[in-house]
Amino acid sequence: MSLFFLITAAIAIGGTLAAMTRRNPIHCILSLALGLVGVAGVYLALGAQFVGFTQILVYVGAVAILATFALMMTQGHIVSALIEPRRAFSRSSVSGFVTAAGVFSVLGWAAQSYRPLTPSTQQAPAAGAKEVGVALMHTYVLPLEVIGVLLTAALIGAVVIALPSEEERS
Amino acid sequence: MTPVAVDQIFVTTKHLLMGYVPAFWQPLASAILSVVPVLVVFPALFAVTTVLERKGLGRIQNRLGPNRVGPFGFLQPAADGIKSLTKEDVVPRDADKVVHFLAPILLVLASFIVYAVLPIGRNMVIADLNSGLLFFFAVGSMVELAVFMAGWSSRSKYSLLGAMRAVAQMISYEIPLVLAAVVVIMAAGSLSLPAIAEMQSGYTWIWPHWYVLTPWGFAGFVLFMISATAESNRSPFDLPEGESEIIAGYYIEYSGFKFALFFLGEYLGMFATSGLAITLFLGGWSAPFSFLTWVPSYLWFFAKLLVLIAAFIWVRGTFPRLRMDQLMGFAWKFMLPMTLVNVVDAGLWHFMPSGVVRGVVCAAVIVIPFALFSRRAQEGKKLQIRTYRYAE
Amino acid sequence: MTPLNLFLLLSALLFSIGLAGALTRRNAILVLIGIELMLNAANINLIAFWRFGPNPEALTGVMFAIFSISVAAAEAAVGLAIILAVYRHNKTTNLNQIDTLKG
Amino acid sequence: MSWIVHNLWLVAALPFAAGGVISVMKQRQRTLAAGLAVGSMALSFVLALMAFVQVLTSHGEATRQFSNFAWFQFGAEWVRLGWLLDPLTAVMLVMVTFVGLLIFIYSIGYMAEDENFKRFFCFLALFAGAMLGVLIANNLLLLFMCWEIVGLTSYLLIGFWYEKPSAAAAAKKAFIVTRIGDLGLFLGMAWLYAQTGTLLFYDAGRGCLEANALTTLAMHTTVFGLTLSSAIGILIFCGSAGKSGQVPLHVWLPDAMEGPTPVSALIHAATMVAAGVFLLARVYPLLSAGVTHGMTTTVALQVVTWVGAITALFGALVAVAQWDIKRILAYSTMSQLGYMMIGLGTGGVSVGMFHLITHAFFKALLFLGAGSVIHGCHGEQDIRFMGGLRKAMPVTFAAYSCGMLALCGVPLFSGFWSKDEILHSAFVWNLSRGPFYIGAIGALLTAFYMTRQMIYVYAGTTRLAAESTHGEHGHSGAHESPKVMTVPLLILAVPAVVLGFFGTPVWPWFQSFLEGDTANVSFGALGGAFPLMIVSSLIVFVGLGLGWLLYGRKLIVDVGALDRIESAQPGLFHLLSGAFYINELYAATVVRFTLVAASVSAWLDRWIFGGVVRAISTIFVLFAKVDSFADTHVVNRGFDAGCGSVSYGGSFLSKLQAGKVQRYLKFVGVALFVAVALLFWGGKA
């Protein structure tokens, strides 16, 4: 068990826990960014450097920023409205936690009972930019194209959805 | 000492020192030995740059600049540093204290971390990652978050406006920045910055193999530098901190040392992107002519860095600030298409047989869209040459 | 070397945290974030099985993770756009007050 | 392999590149846009001629050359594309680039006053590139891609004047109707790929149109006892029926005349609609695969023939009763495409292709002539408002007459030879004489309606000034078109007259060229075809005479006068002018059905499925109520608790439909819990 893994896993768990429990949504997003950096660290611990940096670029650089923008554009102008009321454990939230705990119990049990494997190679196989690029351009070129189309469609779709309609603008 | 020994003096010194460290501590010691010089050199450069910038701007604006502290005012940064350290640290009452505190630290941290992958001389890089360029951009994108944290946590209209402007601008210009760098990745076939620098260190007769000397490389360099100017919120893209509109943007509510940290972070970011531009396009640490290779590589790197900094100062002194819509229009209607054309051009370069024809075709592929786009950008605008008057 | 089970456990934990957040938070943006988190947990699994699998040279898991990240980015963009549109219509992002899906 | 085969892609790439460059140019740069488009087309024409010469000078096996390359990989499969140069491609290339070039030049004059001049040339160039791509493709996938781009540009060009609602609607209709046909083509393509594992036409023995693949395809049978090759062929024919306006997918073609006239000439007369016929000619080996000793034809070819025959008759009938000069030509095009299908189905590639080529020239000529007439009449398209144009537009009249005579099939004009050959092959078709008789009637009608049109437009005195609603700007009377328009007309008139001599029975050069032989002059062949030629000439002259009898003897003077057929047989005339009410039939059946199906689904969703959910919750509530009633009044009140729990169950179930996203998500979570638990605990047991 490596120290690096422990640190990154702790960051990931801490960050995401904070992200899901803080009352101020901005804090939630910032802690989520931290947690996802931790997840990127876990990727690095697994030897997937490219994915790790991509993760930081996409989630911290784009998704977190996007979420803050969305927050600012919905109710960001009222700071007090941002902060969720301190609530006693309501019934629905309790059932939510119970469901999540149940899922964790079965998943954790399944993970635990998995036959412990050691990697087939001691040194992580090269998954650097070059190898990923070659794989993307050969074996996975069709998925790559599909992803390209998907991202374009998402780009246009997001703009169209978020654009105010004619009567709303006037 | 031979030129090679001089060139590698820091590398050999480190090896020498490492010999005295017990094996268990070696990773830590190695890290410290690599990191500490960076932590010392670049802030020092920052100090020098501030005074140079103020003096340079002064000359451009027909005045003297700082000249009171020390010889020619060169101790001004020390005075500024002492002042900011001793100043009261004001935190607004309604501010989100933790985030307010973390923002400048995250900014400086992110700005420092990117130096890990910059080769500042032959064999002189802290971490040779094989996805180094991606690392640079990934960590660089954290700066946006830091800026947002600073602007939001201050609970001030001006700082929030500044932060939103800054983030919008940084996101918009990050795309051309990365796309401008893509051409180099295509040419070098690697994301590792030392490898990219190494690849440009050859010579044909006396001319170096720098990417800036190819049509796409030149266009890429110019596009990269423009995007880098916008990324580091410098004039003429300094809307986020436009003094006349929103006072100082996202760090208006910061004072004392935290304010200095913002300044430091911003300049470090500028140095880092300049360093990246040098590594990608200007051959990194390699000498500009084959007969100058005896000069140590790190000196070349810093010489080029100083040249780029001077260019930054020059630009700041000469260009007026853009309007927000001009800024966004420029990013999406000019920079983005041009970088995409440039990517195509680099591909063309790769597939065409080398020769004069290739150079002409690739130059044409860049110049024609440039002419088209810039003509379209100027359409319907009255442009005329300004006349200046000097007080002599 | 860290055993595979630990990665799987971490992934299960992150997944459950994301699920809990998505189930209990009232702000639509935070629910979306919870879902992003669940996607990330799945990515950890993909990478872990790639590393520990019998044929890591094929890069299958890495590729899958990259595609999953791209899809998650697209999903976030569209999701947030939908939230903006819903907000403009309902003047709230509180999921308790949005029940137009009611049959 | 020669240079031209390797670089055949340039033929298609040049117009594409021109279109791309034009698209980023400024609206004002009209000269440059037109110059680029025309220049690229001229270069393509030169390349096409080179390709043609290359094929002409090669012999035997070398007449078919291809250049394949790997495009990309998915999984372990490589997708390979390529281009192909054979006589079929070469002939089509020359035809398309030549006609295209003339129409491009003509458009400069025709569109001179349009403010979207640049956009027009951008679309035209894109269309030309895609069309040439269809021709050179050696891969059904590449062909399909270009085919779709052709469809897209057709859509864009029909809707070029999109501010006109009718044009926008016509564009949409064309796009959707051809898409229905393309669905068949796509299915056929997928099926072909599944069966042969390749979409390359020719690949040194491994292509899907080569002997190996074809024997396999012809051996296996599928539903209704069809051979695989026939089934796939019929699916592919769906695509060409859509593009070539065959019944029942013809409805878009007449409406497509809403586009600018050069577009009608280029796309909806000469090239794109012919692409359907070309596609069939390309996959003809597939269509005819499995022709064994006993059978002389395949099911696919029969389908092609009969659909073609129906279309030929249908188009000719409807054209008789149209008022719009372009609509008459559109229905005529439909009818002629039907002839090509008959020729292809009964006589093979060369018969259909010969008519395609001659038709392309004279129909383009007719359309450009019609455009010139419309231009001269200030936008008027109704033939009732024309008349007397022979004197006003002598050049247009002369050229138009050549086209008209060729279309009617007057002896020695190009249309005569090609149509006669189709009739001949239909006559000797051993399955049925039906197509022949239909074709003969069609020929008669063709001569008839063209005479009618000619007399309406050119004879007598002008009716334009009196009633025209379009004569703006104070123009009075018609005028001849500028040189940039009339010169292409005159150039096109030449092949419309003489092209037929390349494929006469005496010297069947064209047919031999397509089959890779050299042609010999043999007067003996004339003997067999001669009686039929006499018959078909007679038919044509009867048609011309009928037209003269009805319209020419006593000229129409009054604009509001009824058509001669209308006054004699009003019911028949209205049926014809309404195009047998096919559009209305579709509106009443297909479109209505779709709407009804949609509302039925909505109703089902709302009342049946929603109702079931509601019913379940109501039943639970009802149970609870009954229970509680029994409880309070009949049984011991101690059961209150149990009753309450059932009632709770009812309300719980109704809450499932509360519209709360998170509750739905929760069910997913619970389901996941149960699924994983079952998987592991269940697996253990």
Task: Note down, in words, how this protein is organized.
The complex is a heterotetramer of chains A (170), B (392), C (103) and D (685). Chain B is mostly helical and 392 residues long. Chain B has helices at residues 3-7, 9-18, 26-60, 76-86, 97-113, 132-140, 142-153, 157-188, 193-199, 215-231, 243-246, 256-281, 297-318, 324-351, 356-378, and strands at residues 203-204, 207-208. Chain B has one domain. Chain B has 15 helices and two strands. Chain C has a domain at 27-97. Chain D has 685 residues and is mainly α. Chain D folds into three domains: 1-242, no CATH class; 291-577, no CATH class; 583-684. Chain D contains 29 helices and two strands. Chain D has helices spanning 3-6, 9-23, 30-57, 87-110, 117-136, 140-158, 165-196, 211-219, 228-243, 252-255, 261-270, 272-282, 284-287, 299-319, 325-347, 349-376, 389-392, 394-408, 414-427, 434-458, 464-467, 483-498, 509-515, 524-552, 564-568, 570-577, 582-634, 640-655, 661-684; strands at 65-74, 77-85. In chain D, a hairpin with a 2-residue loop joins strand 1 and strand 2. In chain D, helix 5 runs antiparallel to helix 6 (140-158) and helix 16 runs antiparallel to helix 22 (483-498). The model of chain D is unreliable at 467-475 (pLDDT under 50). The chains are: A mainly alpha (170), B mainly alpha (392), C mainly alpha (103), D mainly alpha (685). Chains A and B meet through helix 2 and helix 3 of A and helix 6, helix 7 and helix 8 of B.
Please outline what is shown here.
The complex is a heterotetramer of chains A (170), B (392), C (103) and D (685). By secondary structure, chain B is mainly alpha-helical.
Quickly list its features.
heterotetramer; B: about 400 residues; mainly alpha; two-stranded antiparallel ribbon; 15 helices; 2 strands; about 65% helix; C: about 100 residues; 3 helices; elongated
**Distance, first to last CA of chain C:** 52 Å
The helix/strand series of chain B, from N terminus to C terminus, equals HHHHHHHHHEEHHHHHH
Shape call of chain C: elongated
- Can you write the helix and strand succession of chain C as a string? HHH
Record the SSE blueprint.
The complex is a heterotetramer of chains A (170), B (392), C (103) and D (685).
Chain A (H helix, E strand, L loop, with lengths): L2 H19 L3 H21 L3 H27 L3 H4 L8 H22 L16 H9 L3 H22 L3 H4 L1
Helix pairs in contact in A: 1-2, 2-3
Chain C lengths: L3 H21 L3 H25 L7 H31 L13
Helix pairs in contact in C: 1-2, 2-3
Chain D lengths: L2 H4 L2 H15 L6 H28 L7 E10 L2 E9 L1 H24 L6 H20 L3 H19 L6 H32 L14 H9 L8 H16 L8 H4 L5 H10 L1 H11 L1 H4 L11 H21 L5 H23 L1 H28 L12 H4 L1 H15 L5 H14 L6 H25 L5 H4 L15 H16 L10 H7 L8 H29 L11 H5 L1 H8 L4 H53 L5 H16 L5 H24 L1
Antiparallel strand pairs in D: 1-2
